Amino acid sequence: MAITVSGIGSGLDVENIVTQLMAVERQPLLRLASREAGLQAQISSVGTLKSVLAGFRTAVDKLADPETFNAATARVSDPTVLSVTADPGAAPGTLAVEVTRLAQNHRLASEARADTATVGGAAGDTLGITVGTDTLTLDLSTAKTLAEIRDLINADTTGVGVSASLLDEAGDGSAQRLILNARASGFENRLQLSFGGSLTADSLGFTTLNRDGAGTVLTDLTDLNASLSIDGFTLARSTNTVDDAIAGLTLNLTAVGTASISVGQNDAAIVSALTGMVDSYNTLKTQLDGLSQGVLSGDSLTRNVLGGVRSVMNRAFSGFGDFASLAELGITTTREGDMQLDSLRLTRALADNRTGVAGFFSSETGFAAALSTALDGYLDDDGIVDARIDGLNNRVRDLQSQQARWELRLVGIEDRLRTQFTALDSLVAQLTTTSTFLAQQLDNLPGAVFRSDRR
After folding, report:
1. DSSP 10-38
2. Three-class DSSP category at 171
3. Which of 184, 176, 161, 180 is nearest to 116 (CA)?
4. pLDDT in tens, 173-221
5. C-beta atoms surrounding 444 within 10 Å
6. Residue 184: helix, strand or coil by DSSP?
7. Three-class SS state of 424
8. pTM for this structure?
């Protein structure tokens, strides 16, 4: 860009004049930018509204899930023996459980050897470790120390369920044992060894490390399974997690002993779900109130959303016993328009007619389904909220196009003003030079009749 210095010859402050005139010319552009900022604020506010609506629908959808009303709870008399989790629909009742043995991971230890001692070294020497139906075969045709055998086992990537470690009894490498550990518990996952070539079971001298509750080494590997009885019926499982004995219950065994399990219906889960819906609605209402008094003042969207939600909440439903409205289940509206939940009234309703309460909320013709359908009209991809955002974005793009055109226009206006005032500056400078010259000439005339210093 060329450097121009204006006003030197004429004394005109061209830069300041152009700047002030351009400030006037820029006013329409500033108004367009202000309108765009207002639209961007509306887009942000509608986006916030959509987020709050989505959170409200999540709370409503939880009420539409029948499992919410089939929630069960399980209590254990002695939690040191076992813990229990109950799935929805678990049958209420009491169970007597006795744990006589916990499942163990099979463990084997080799005889003690020096860290320099090797195993194998002859053609065909192999060590096979089978877990279930998978076998890891180690090539020991080149002699290996116990540490090298450990590393071969742990480097396996085929997924055979075994790991290895070294036990150094003396701490100086003179008496090391190779320890094999089954990764999973139970008899089915026991470690079975096989030997090839010149190797035999005596080559490493593996023995079982597992012991029973009395500290005696296991001789019957079926004792690697957990053993328990439920109401007098004896069961054996390969793990300490028993999820296939009683429908809907998962037992996690932790110690030998006896305990009773009490299974009941979980009213607290239902109260929690309804509390979540009430709280989410109040958050939505607060958000709508703030937007309607702020950025979206006068916008029909906030009124439509709140009106649509309230119309469902005030609707009467039929076919669910004595329950036709939210108020009959302890959900009412305060004078300020917020929702509140009377948990005691809800609990009494569950005691009187649990099926009716569940149907009122989770039935396909019930409250949650109706409200979720109403919310879909706002939140679907082609719903009211996205349509409003799309409309606002279109207006923003139009304003941005107008601003771009104004920017180009302003460049031309500034160039024209600068050209005009530069020409004016030059003209004034020339006139000033001419005036000075004429005055000098007059001063030099004979008789100095027209001397410029005479007044």
Report:
1. T---HHHHHHHHHHHHTHHHHHHHHHHHH
2. coil
3. 176
4. 999 999 999 999 999 999 999 999 999 999 999 999 999 989 999 999 9
5. 9
6. strand
7. helix
8. 0.67
